[in-house]
Write a structure and sequence with these properties.
Blueprint (H helix, E strand, L loop, with lengths): L1 H18 L5 E3 L3 E3 L7 E3 L2 E4 L7 E7 L10 E2 L4 E2 L4 E4 L2 E4 L4 H13 L3 E6 L6 E6 L2 H15 L2
Parallel strand pairs: 5-10
Antiparallel strand pairs: 1-4, 2-3, 4-5, 6-7, 8-9, 10-11
Helix pairs in contact: 2-3
């Protein structure tokens, strides 16, 4: 956790350099509470505003795994990820639905009503960007469980 917190600002600068489109920018945000479900909230690393249109945005979630501080996120030679929550999908790197990070970003997208998330997994030896779309069915199922837990 300390490594990730310490490295996060470097990771965001690298994301801006490698992936941010010209004219776009990142807004740092804190905790956001869901208006009609105030028991539900989310905190993300930023919101990417695409171009000059504040309505065109996506979430930014950054991970800096300690286990990859001295190796790349994706090992080109072995053709494997050095983190257990990513896999190779049809369109490249994909976040496993069974991982808690998937739930985390889905809840964040639900709370903010933002349809997409850039999950940036940083290592100084080689990073990975995963585009995560909002999964309405998954979110609905999780929200039902969270609501039942909260009110019982």
């Amino acid at each position: 956790m300390i490594y990730g917190t310490k490295t996060e600002s470097t990771a965001i600068r690298q994301y801006e350099t490698d992936w941010l489109e010209p004219g776009s920018y990142i807004v740092k945000v804190g905790l956001i509470i869901k208006l009609l479900q105030p028991w539900l909230a989310g905190s993300r690393d930023g919101v990417v505003i695409l171009g000059n249109n504040i309505m065109d945005k996506r979430l930014l979630e950054v991970k800096c795994p300690y286990t990859c501080q001295d190796k790349p996120i994706y090992d080109e030679e072995e053709k494997i990820f050095n983190v257990n929550y990513l896999t190779i999908g049809e369109n490249g790197a994909q976040l496993k639905r069974s991982n808690q990070i998937y739930t985390q970003v889905q809840i964040q997208m639900y709370v903010t009503n933002i349809p997409n998330c850039d999950l940036y997994i940083y290592s100084s030896k080689g990073s990975a960007l995963v585009k995560v779309p909002r999964d309405e069915m998954f979110s609905r199922d999780v929200i039902i469980k969270l609501e039942a837990f909260h009110f019982t």
